[in-house]
Write a sequence for this structure.
């Protein structure tokens, strides 16, 4: 082999190695990818129009759920049903012992604090975002976890498009995700289906 042929082979070898390495870099999962956004399909569906408070963006989640549905009813009626938290247990089977702590009319408002049980966990909540007929979101604190759950209502041709998402953080959220990976999505799906049924009556 001549010197020139040797250099040619070396350059070809480096080009091939570079291409292979580049290919691996493009296909390898990002270190920044959050398992809470990749363990099921919910992370890919997250809605850009949600207003997240500091510290509770989906990228910071240990557990994340996204659900949506279209209801053949006005967003005003849907919002009223969500805000009437005291009666959730009568139509949403995953809510129990709802107790509003600072609401004279028994409904959610900005700053309303309430306690309740859901997914087998006792939660202390406080309403953070309250835009009538449009947005409602609250913080929730339970053993080993902190959460933010939000509802966004968008007027649709056939009624109201509801998007609900939740970010949960903490060791309790990690354990919940690992032991019951589909539970929060399924629970929120049940919430939306029963909300749809109630709103369309």
């Amino acid at each position: 082999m001549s010197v020139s042929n040797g250099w040619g082979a070396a350059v070809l070898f480096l080009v091939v190695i570079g291409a292979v390495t580049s290919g691996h870099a493009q296909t390898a999962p990002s270190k920044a990818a959050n398992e809470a956004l990749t363990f099921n399909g919910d992370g890919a569906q997250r809605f850009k129009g949600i207003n997240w408070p500091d510290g509770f963006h989906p990228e910071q989640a240990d557990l994340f759920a996204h659900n949506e549905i279209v209801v053949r009813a006005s967003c005003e009626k849907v919002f009223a049903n969500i805000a009437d938290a005291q009666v959730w247990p009568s139509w949403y089977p995953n809510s129990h012992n709802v107790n509003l702590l600072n609401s004279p009319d028994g409904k959610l408002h900005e700053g309303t604090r309430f306690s309740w049980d859901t997914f087998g966990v006792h939660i202390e909540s406080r309403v953070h975002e309250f835009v009538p007929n449009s947005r409602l979101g609250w913080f929730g604190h339970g053993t080993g976890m902190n959460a933010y759950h939000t509802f966004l209502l968008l007027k649709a041709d056939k009624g109201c498009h509801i998007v609900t998402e939740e970010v949960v953080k903490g060791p309790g959220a990690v354990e919940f995700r690992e032991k019951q990976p589909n539970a929060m999505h399924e629970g929120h799906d049940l919430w939306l289906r029963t909300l749809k049924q109630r709103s369309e009556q």
